[in-house]
Design brief:
Strand order of the largest sheet: 1-7-6-5-4-2-3
Number of strands: 12
Strand content: 5-15%
Shape: globular
Distance between the termini: 53 Å
Largest sheet: 7 strands, mixed
Structural class: alpha/beta
């Protein structure tokens, strides 16, 4: 099946007389006729469900759809995109280990890595995604366990060179983990370019309608854990909490990583997505291909309008010719990037505040990447405690406005922006 069909049909095939839609299994527990039967589940000897903190049928069906869209072998849903980022790394790295990560990643992920996971004993080296080969090579250490980047960075819109970083990671015997939230598998499938693990904040385009927080991790099944057994003992040595099971041996190259993340991390940390939210996510996935096409079309028109408006100081959108990442975007995302644009208005912080106050179609919100056109001026909201000098050091210009172009009529969006910009005269 092609991606448009997978959006609608993958992950769940109802049998005769069964519900057409993925059912919501809103139950914490599952009944068995004997302790012996349940014991097989606890020993990972039999497939099934015993407690929703680990797995739930609704969640697994939706995860299977996302795995199909990404071209992976297995997937799991998490409570949020942050949980997905955390699990994706913590599943293979622990105290005393090291990870190489791009500097151009979501601020929340950067803080997770640089502060919270650092407190857990995991070291991170952050590299510019456009660094030299020598700088990239120097970032690796003998205890490096993974490389992490974003297909399209939030909010800088840097397009990551997946092939280059995959080659570097594999040369050091570690997997490349890619956050594919902004691109979605509709516009980029990182596994086709050498990535090994993909994460998503499903809260964004996949959900598409602001109704459910969630995340997902997908395994490509390509990385050979046993070939690097000394680096990944959690996958290649017996797990005594499951009677000595060795995940890479029992579940193979395509199932070991997600099985361990489910059996260990979800068991102990419990950041499961609710079945109700998984149901909402599936509704969003059914229209994902259609919506992403519209997001890209609208964003391209809006970016071209902004680039010509005299009130606009600068525009950053990889789909614009002349953008630093235009050619790289054509390689990895030939059908378009995403609906997010950043730009600045002439007059700085004060002008930006006035511009925002005049908008009627665009919604002022902290959210991004959904059906509604959303807009945010960080200097007057999320980063308002910083001075202009501090904003610049943080990589957020005082005039920066993040615009997430929705699926409304593009002319209505442009007319709204135009009238708000004219108020600056």
């Amino acid at each position: 099946m092609r991606k448009e069909t997978k959006c609608v049909q993958a992950g769940y095939t109802p049998k005769n007389g069964e519900p057409r839609m993925i059912p919501i299994i809103q139950s914490t527990t599952f009944k068995y006729d004997s302790s012996a039967e349940m014991g097989k589940l606890f020993d990972l000897e039999k497939e099934g469900y015993f407690y929703t903190r680990l797995q739930n049928p609704t969640n697994d069906m939706v995860a299977a759809k996302i795995a199909a869209l990404e071209g992976g072998t297995a997937a799991m849903l998490t409570a949020s995109g942050q949980a997905a980022s955390f699990y994706s790394v913590f599943n293979i790295a622990g105290a005393g280990d090291h990870v190489v990560a791009s500097t151009a990643i979501y601020g929340g992920t950067y803080n997770l890595f640089n502060v919270t996971m650092k407190r857990m004993g995991i070291d991170f080296t952050f590299v510019d995604p456009d660094c030299s080969d020598e700088e990239l090579e120097a970032a690796f250490q003998p205890n490096t366990k993974a490389v992490f980047g974003e297909t399209i960075a939030n909010p800088s819109l840097v397009v990551f060179d997946i092939e280059r970083f995959a080659a570097a990671a594999h040369a050091h015997g570690v997997p490349l983990i890619i956050d594919n939230t902004f691109a979605t598998p509709i516009n980029c499938r990182p596994f086709e370019w050498g990535a090994d693990i993909v994460t998503h904040s499903t809260t964004k385009y996949m959900d598409g309608h602001d109704v459910g927080v969630g995340g997902c991790i997908v395994d490509s099944g390509h990385f050979d854990w046993m070939a690097h057994a000394d680096k990944f003992p959690g996958l290649t040595q017996p797990d005594e909490s499951y009677h000595g099971i060795t995940y890479a041996e029992k579940f193979g190259q395509g199932g070991a990583y997600i099985t361990k993340a489910t059996a260990q991390l979800m068991r102990d940390l419990g950041a499961i997505q609710s079945p109700q939210n998984a149901f909402y996510l599936n509704l969003g996935l059914e229209s994902l291909a259609v919506r992403m096409e519209r997001h890209v079309q609208n964003a391209q028109k809006v970016a071209e309008f902004l680039a010509k408006d005299p009130h606009v100081a600068w525009v950053n959108y990889p789909g614009l010719k002349g953008n630093k990442y235009y050619e790289r975007a054509k390689k990895y995302l030939p059908n378009g990037t995403c609906g997010v644009i950043s730009f600045g208005v002439k007059g700085g912080r004060t002008a930006a505040e006035k511009f925002m106050s005049q908008l009627q179609v665009a919604i002022i919100a902290t959210h991004v990447a959904d059906a509604h056109t959303c807009i945010l001026h960080p200097a007057n909201s999320t980063h308002r405690q910083l001075s202009d000098e501090e904003l610049i050091r943080a990589g957020v210009a005082p005039d920066l406005i993040r615009l997430s172009v929705g699926i409304e009529n593009a002319d209505d969006i442009i007319e709204d922006l135009e009238q708000a910009l004219k108020s600056l005269d």
